[in-house]
Amino acid sequence: MVSTASLSTKLVRIGAGLLLVALASIGLTLWVTWQLEGGAAAVNEAGRMRMQTWRLTSVAQAGPPPGEVAVLVQQFDQSLELLRRGDASRPLFVPWDDAVAREFATVEALWQNQRPLWLQDTPPEPAQALAAADTFVEAIDALVLAIEHQLAGFTAILNLFQLLMMALAIAGAVVMLYTGYMYVINPLAHLRQGLRRLESGDFKARVEVETLDEFGQVAGGFNRMAATLQSMYAGLESQVETKTRHIEAQR
């Protein structure tokens, strides 16, 4: 079937298709990178909670001034709230899945159980404080491991997107080369071959019209020109032959 689209339309369609695929790949890569940045910030915040736990333990045992332990407890509440809601400006957000949500719920439940222990008037016994801190730090470690497992999955996806973009670049180059050959180089080669036949005196030379684009229009014009030249040449031969017979008859 003869294509009716113009050459510029074909090139625009191919270029637009490649551009859309490239933009989609870049957009997905940026999204995965954003997830990795937010997850890394969440891991840092969770790691800071471990430091806050040991600091709270040491301060509670040292007999601090009134209100200092409450300030540390409030900071701990703020860290949990930050992990729960996230902060897009940093960016910071937890890559939630079932495992991460389960470990975070465990951390919250432990903190709600231990929070009254740190806020009581008398500091807890050293053994009790260390046991509570160890249990809480283990829960935070499990949360960090769950987040890191999610980040490892995002890293694998990012590597896959990078390989796909490399393959896309190669495929785009192949498509552009193939397009240039099919829509530009090959039609020009047919026209050049037809011109050579026409220059050698073969007025029956014709170029096959496969498309209706610019090169198809040029090929059609070439065929009309060749037909006109063939008709004119045949008319000249007929006139020369008639004139020759007339001269022979006169002689």
List keywords for this structure.
251 residues, mainly alpha, 0% strand
Helix percent reads over 70%
Quaternary structure classification:
single chain
Number of domains: 2
Give the rounded overall mean pLDDT.
83
Question: Might you state the CATH topology name of the largest domain?
Answer: Four Helix Bundle (Hemerythrin (Met), subunit A)
Q: Output the CATH class name of the largest domain.
A: Mainly Alpha
Q: What's the main sheet like?
A: none
**Number of E strands:** 0
User: What is the CA-atom radius of gyration, in angstroms?
Assistant: 40 Å
Helices and strands, in order, run as HHHHH
Explain this structure.
The chain is mainly alpha-helical and 251 residues long. It folds into 2 domains: 7-172, Four Helix Bundle (Hemerythrin (Met), subunit A); 178-250. It contains 5 helices and no strands. The chain is rod-shaped and about 145 Å long. The mean pLDDT is 83.
Secondary structure elements and pairings:
Blueprint: H1 7-61, H2 68-85, H3 98-119, H4 126-199, H5 214-250
In short:
The protein is mainly alpha-helical and 251 residues long. The protein is 82% helix and 0% strand. It contains five helices and no strands.
